[in-house]
Structures are given as structure tokens and as C-alpha cells.
Amino acid sequence: MELEEKSYLYLLFIIPILVGVFLYIQFWKRKKQREFGDLELLRKLSPDKSVFKPVLKFIIFLLALSALVFGLVNPKIGTKMETVKREGIDIVFALDVSKSMLAEDVAPSRLEKSKQIVSQIINQLGNDRIGIVAYAGSAFPVLPITTDYGVAKMFLQSMNTSMVSSQGTSLDEAIKLSSTYFDKGNKTSKLLILISDGEDHSEGAEDAAAEANKNGMKIITIGVGTEKGGPIPIKRNGVVESFKRDGNNEVVITKLNQESLSTIAKATKGGYVNGNNTKEVIDYIKKALENIQKTEFEATQMADFQSQFQWFLGIAFFLLFLDIFLSERVTNWIKKLNLFNEKE
Asked: Do 162 and 98 meet the contact criterion of CB atoms below 8 Å apart?
């Protein structure tokens, strides 16, 4: 099942608020009735007033409201799985999530800028398969190879500097983990797009790139940050409290290292591009993808998605119609059964 407009689900928060208001009103009415006179006497003065019917009407109204919300969300159900043939390449995005990526020498920050770049690149893709890797002092698989770009963007936006416990920037670990995403026996073209500020705190990135090249993998590196650099902010509730300091209590200034990123790219006959201008990056990637051979592969996907909103809207209108014409007076045959102790 797929939800087309998930944002409307927030409207469901209205329901507990309405329940609270309803309960308060019932409590207030009860209190005022006690102040006015004896409850038993009031019940005798209005024998046709039902205790249960107002509650039933309110429940029907809430069900109608819930159905309307789900109608706005528009659930879609796929009727079958089908295998389709596509022509493209396999792309893995390796995104640096080390603390240095919090620096704001590139607005809004290096990490957010990197997410924007990856998202824009995904928008330009057609039938390619993509995967996502996060790395800092070690590498972490975020999303395996998939053709579902919507899911990829969702995972991308959730990435942060807390998802990898070991800090630092280990480019070799990112390259090695990304290599495992590709099937060595598959002839599909393999591309790793590595986004970082290039501050590598490990050794062996060039060796890892050379090994990846042997396996037919091309690497394009994107540098995010400035050579002048900037401090690493420490925030609480979105407000900068201080900046990261070293052992000498000096503010740490993190700088873009374009040289290390260029070296890695050259090892696989790939290329390096500065990521501070998103348009330039997108144009560069588009040209690079045009020069990479596309391969036909099979992909399994859910087909024939059908919108289901009409069922929910139908239920909602029926319940609202029922609620309007449902009287708050006691129903005679229910009164005879005395199911709700409304009889003397």
C-alpha cells in the first residue's frame, strides 16, 4: 500500500482534541444539572432524552472525520508485482556525516548542502538503480540498491551526524563498503558519487580507490566546504552555544581538502567537482552520466496502483448523513429492551 498525501495524516491529531472537548462538555453539563436540581427528577421531566444517543452520534462523527482524512491521504493499493526491464547504471551515494560536515561555511551547512545535491541528482535520474552509504570514522549502509527514488529521498533526509558512532572521516571505509553494493559478476556500469569535505583522517583511500577501479567502479567526488574553512558549531535546540575546540582549547577550523578528493577520483578515471554551486554539480553529473554505458537489467516493482480515496469519502458521507438524521431521543424498541438502563 502507498499513501499519496501523507501530510494530511496530521489532521488525525484533531480527534483526541475533540474527544477532550466532548468529555469536558459532558462533565460541565452534568455539573450544571446537579446545581439546577435532582438528576433523577430531571430525568423524569425529560423521559425521551437518551443518555447513549449523544455518545453514539459523537462516535459516528469521529469515524466520519477519520474516513475523510484517509480519503485526503488517498491510499493506493498495488494489485500485482511485475518484473520490468530497464536500461541504466548502478549508482551509490556515499555521504560524509562526520562532525566537520556541520560547519556552516557553506549555507545552510555542509551536510544539508550535500543532501540538497544528492536530492537534485536523483531528480535527474531515469532508470538507474541507487544506493546510499553514510560514513565518518567508519561506514554504515543506509539504503541498498533500489529503483525506488521516493524511499531513497526519505532515507537521505533522515541522515545526520549521530548515525555513525565513530568520528573522523574514513574515505577508504566508504569506498570499500560502497564496493559491496555492486555485483562483481554483473556487467552493469558502477558509479560511486562520494560527497565530503575531504578531511580524511585515515590512510588507504587511494589504495581502496585503485582496488575499486579494478572491479570496474568509477568514482566521482564532490567537495563541499571552503578552503578558508569554518568552525564546527555545537547547538542545542537549533541555537549555537559554542564551537568545537581541540586539546589546546583552540576553536577547530575545518577546511575543504580538494586535493585528496581529486586524487581518489583520478585513481578510477573519474572526476572531481566543487559542490558549492549546485547547478554546476548537476551539469557535471549529467554530462558524466551521458558518457557512461547503460546496461539493461530487470527490476521488480508493484504495478497497477489503484486510488482508494473514493471508498473512504463514501463511508465519510454516509456516516455524516447518518449522524445528521440520528435523533438524540430514546428509540422506543431499545427503550423496551432497557439495554442502557434508561428505564425507570
From this structure: no
Digit-coded pLDDT (tens) for 3-46 = 777 788 888 899 999 999 989 988 887 777 676 666 565 565 55
Is residue 101 helix, strand or coil?
helix
Query: Which residues fall within 8 angstroms of residue 86, CB to CB, at 6 or more apart?
Result: 127, 147, 296, 297, 298, 299
Do 272 and 261 touch, CB atoms closer than 8 A?
yes
What digits encode the pLDDT tens for the residues 277-290?
999 999 999 999 98
Q: Helices (DSSP H) in the chain: which residue ranges?
A: 14-36, 39-45, 52-73, 110-124, 149-157, 171-179, 205-214, 258-266, 278-290, 309-325, 332-337
The secondary element (H helix, E strand) that includes residue 300 is strand 295-307
Assigned C-alpha cell, 40: 433523577
338 burial class (0-12, 13-18, 19+ CB within 10 angstroms)? exposed
Residue labelled with grid coordinates 491529531: 13
- Say which residue the cell 577501479 belongs to: 213
Q: Is 145 exposed, middle or buried (0-12, 13-18, 19+ CB in 10 A)?
A: middle
Separation CA 91–CA 99 (nearest Å):
25
57: exposed, middle or buried (Cβ count in 10 Å: 0-12, 13-18, 19+): middle
Whether the pTM exceeds 0.90: the reply is no
Residues 160 and 238: their CA atoms lie apart, in Å, by 14
The residue whose grid cell reads 551521458 is 290
First-to-final CA distance of the chain: 51
